[in-house]
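> @MW can you paste both from yesterday?
MW: sure, first one:
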Amino acid sequence: MNPAEVRWIRADLRARRVQALLAVLAVTGIVTALITAATLLEDGTNPWRGLFERGNGAHVWIHTKDAPDPATLRTLNGVADLAGPYRSAPATLSQEGKKTPVALRETPAVPPSVGRPLMREGRWLDPRDPRGVVVERSFARALGLRPGGPFSVVGLNGATHTLTVAGTAESGDQGFYPEWAPGLVWTLPQTLAQVEPKVARSESVTGLRLADPDATALVAQRAITKLAGQVQRVSTWHEVRASMELDNRLLGVLLGLFGAAGLVAAVLAIANATGGRILSQRRDIATLKSLGFTRRQVVRMLVVEHGSLGLLGIALGVLCGRLITVYALAETVVVPLSSAPLLGIAFGTALVVLVAVWLPAWRGGRTPPLPAAAAPPRGHLSRAARLAFLVRLPPALVLGARDAFTRRLPALLTAFGLAIPMMMITIGLGYWATLDDFRDRPEQVGQAAALTVRPGMMTSEDAHRVALADPDVVAAFPGTEVDALVPGQTRTVRARALGTVSDPYPFAVVEGRLFRDRGEAVAGQGLLDLLNVRVGDRTRLTIGGTPLIVRIVGRVLEPEQDGEVLSVALDSLAPKDAVPPQFYGLVLREGADPGAVRSRLQGEALEVSQAVSLADRLSVIRVIIVALVVVLALIGLANLLTASALGLRDHALDLAVLKAMGLTPRQVMATLVTGTGLLVVLGVGAGAAAGALVSSGLIDLQGAASGIGAGIGRAPAPLTLLLAVLVAVGAALLVALIPARKAARARIPVTPR
């Protein structure tokens, strides 16, 4: 490019600094959202993968009553290496009156080669300090345990032992607490023998590292067959990965949805801004061509000027996306986004932006070298103007209605460019309403029981009596949770028995009905997908060696275990699994404070845990929605400024004529604002209507994909939607009012055309 072209581009950018800044910020926000979404959705960025690969994790974990022969498992076809067998025993962690179930697992003093925990704080186990243990990191954070801090555990024999946190570690072989419970604690073999001296009260855990991860189900089945009925439960890397990625995938899909729609809106805004700017520069372009500039030079200047804004936004977006994933999401993202999708987003966005800029630039390059080329558009009255005539609106509004659709293609692009951001904002409000529903009505997502009470040192009958004695407790449903082998016995799912046939737990049934008899069950969407069954089908599971054949009569909203939970009445389990109940689910009085009830019951020597609210788990969505609304508002603002500038350009000379006809500056201003306002109302109204129609359906699709199930989506409340539309239209009119007021008060001489 020659110096003259560079000077012209620099001068034009300086003349429209605000519009140029908005274009850069809009593209930056969209690219940032796309990179963050790809980071959360890419399999390589799942926290599980980084932990699993660095810890050389086992693909299958088999829990048996007795320790299996390692040589027998090593000979299985497909097994590359082995972890264990390790002895594991249950215990209860006691801390400030709060009792929490834990699983103590023996581990050698030298970190194992397979299934190796990754140290985060402190040190590994040391035989010179037998009381030192390593606590799984998410469990330690939930309980406030830090390296060097002591805590007490109570064995099944009632004896209390004081242990010390030597360090905290993460593992790709078990999900995060509390979604994956009980909490995991690694100990030396002699430490575990002191806490639980009886081998009969413990189990054996063995990990299989496979040569081919895709053969997990086949190898697991071979191992179960080889062990001939000793297996109590099985977990695979598929379960752990799914439990770690649930929230990430929900956030990633949300960001991807907003990013993709925002990219379309941003491209429209850039194309509209470029086209509008070129229309306002037609006299300058004609002059340049009359001075000797070729069509290619003009197109090149326009593409460089307007495309550089998009490319600058892309560069800033890549930088912001990387900073967010490295620092803001450091706990979520273990592995940064790989280069292929990063380059794909950057180059794909750049290509789309350059095409959007090149099309109007190509049209601008065809401008003839004649000053008269900048004549305003001509045409017939639009339908809006005719309607304004029929209803006898003031002249200013009639003229504004006429001006709105003088250039039909730019008017359509402006309205469409405003409709897309408003549609996505409405969908965001739907997500917000869904989270509010999770918080205000947890029973609608399977969390009717706000508290779970375990007897601890009491009998089950005494715990039930003490819990019901609290004035805020409405009902206490007996329950137990066991691991069930799915058909084929290749993995384990959770089977929950809660309530009885005569007094069932109030599950949130969205399809079918609640169980009414023994042998009937309800299931989450994740379990239905896993077993490939539907409501009304029968399935067979194995619990503790005992077959359980149930008919699934309903689908419930299940936020736990990715929806892979089967719920039955306590009566349906064998007596050895159902009596006595492991816990009681407490339904509280409406308006009761779960924290206060929990404190009172803990004072009665009960072990009480509070349900993890789905709204709290997904609360970061609110922050994301606010950030994306800001980006979408910038895109809408860029479109609006383009429409206002184009309207002023087309009718700048008409202002003097309007004043000569007797219109006051206020009426002239109303004419200009009406022309822009009609496009705003059309775009905002269409976007809000479309968003309200699809928001709940999109949320349900995400709920079904995550295992929770469809039926969670909520559209924004009518009042909220009306306020959003009024705010959007009002803000847009205020923005359009500023240049209109300035133009209406300016002195413009009448120039013959």
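MW: second:
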Amino acid sequence: MTAVLRPKTLRFRLMFSFLLLLVIPLAATALYGHVFARDILSMHAVDKSMSEVHLQAETIADSLRQAQGDGLYLTSLRSLGMLQQQQDSDQIAVWRTEVAQDFMILLSARPMYRALRYLDVDGMEVVAVESDGRTVTRRSNLTTRASAEYFQQVIGLPEQGVYVSSFGVDSENGTSAAPLIFYAMHGGNGGIIVIDIHAGWLLRNLPADLGEDIWALVDQDQRSLVYPEHFRPEQDRDDLAPMLNGETGSFETNHSVYVYDTVFPSSSRPDQFWAIYRETPKSILFAGLNTFYAAAGGFALVGVTLAVVLAFMVSRRLTKPIARLQEMTASFGQTGTAPESAVQLTDDEIGSLTKTFCEMAHELERKRKQEHRLIERLIRAQEEERKLIAYDLHDGLIQQLVGTRFYLSNCRDQCPIGEENTRSGIQRGCDALTSAIVEGRRIIEGLRPATLDDLGVTAAIEELTQSIAQAAGWELDLKIEALPKEPDTSTAVTLFRITQEALNNARRHAQAKHVHLHFHNGTGISIRIVDDGIGFRQTAVASEGRGLGMKTMQERAALLGGNCTITSTPGEGTQVDIWVPNGGMPNVTLFADMPEDVDRVMA
């Protein structure tokens, strides 16, 4: 998965292109939907809230019209007309009782009224009945209401005029803790009918649970008529001002949406109006819009997820042949074994490329096998030539040296005793011939060690290392791991010759005291040779045209697809690392890279 997400991979680019082609129209559609849905849904939410406010305004107007109808009914009562005509105190008392009875009957049928009263032209209560919500009683202690605002206002109105008070005003001190509205009108013969209305009844159709909404009823002077307990309109007078225009509308603040409507409580006073409004937090009013966004976001997320999955599957299908070709290439580069020809290939450029690669790999494998056979023939020819040279030296030169030493020994023995100088000279000649014979036999052994043919490469390298170490006087650290099977001739000979060259170089030039050789068997055969000699500068050796032995060692390893690395620092010794595949064919060998003596031997 990490490789897929790398920006430089073809699969990532395909996925990115696919998603880009999908996301651009999706983003454009989402942007258009956002603008369109926001306007439509916002307008719908405000219209719905405005309808609810308008419905409450109609309910208040109907309630006031009902109060007006009840007032007109009371003014048309026969008992009230008879009371207004009486002059005798006894008759007045009788008809006052009748009026009270009629008032009580109406009051018992109107639980929204707290009291019904009839005042004379001087503001004195003539009849007063009250209700506590359970029982209706006639009040006997009648008082004057001449100073009450509603009395003074109604007196100044025409005959059909109606006065509707502001919230909480009573007849004695102008204020009341009870939420009341006083509805007053002329009652005929100069009298006044007063209906005390429970203000809460006007908003009786509000939801039982207002939640975070605020409903309020205010007059044009910003005096509140009805409001929730936690609401204080005097703290929000700046928000109330736009609603006191006698019209219907809505507006928004930073956190809320106000929707309002206007109620005219009295047709005789067009300058008096109430504003009923609803304040709703935007988070509540536009909850539908938020729900729409959440749903749209969910659908968009699902769409993007499906798009990613689809892009992943499509890109995987498109790049699978390329990935397979990449695996085949990597495997061929690591193992050198040509991949099997693909049975199912796509009929496109990738299938054609895969087929071409398989054909090329098989052709290259065939050439490498042929090259490996040539290398084996080359090494075998070299070794045969070394054998011939060794046989010639052994049967020819060495035998002649031995014979010469035999003749000199006889000559020394036949010399007179007095000729000590002659005898001494002959003896030195015999000693020199003995050294030459030993050196010749060592050269013969180096040309083709019998141990390499008889006991294998590990025993040959061990014997070679111990022999050179003994001759050079080294302190030797030798670690040789056994091989599961003996490598082929070319590998064994190459390892032996490179090791022989490295040890001889150390003997001639390193001036070392300690030498470490580690023969390791792993993915291939590796040999590490380390000495504590004087070391050298590799750049200096190359610039001086020396180092033919090192170059030969590296070329020998390269012939088998291996490598030979030589690192050295003056004063810190030298390290030689050799690695060749164990019995495998060369990985990086071309016929053109063979050394010059190949042509000579093969010829």
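> thanks! The CA atoms of residues 119 and 125 lie 4 Å apart.
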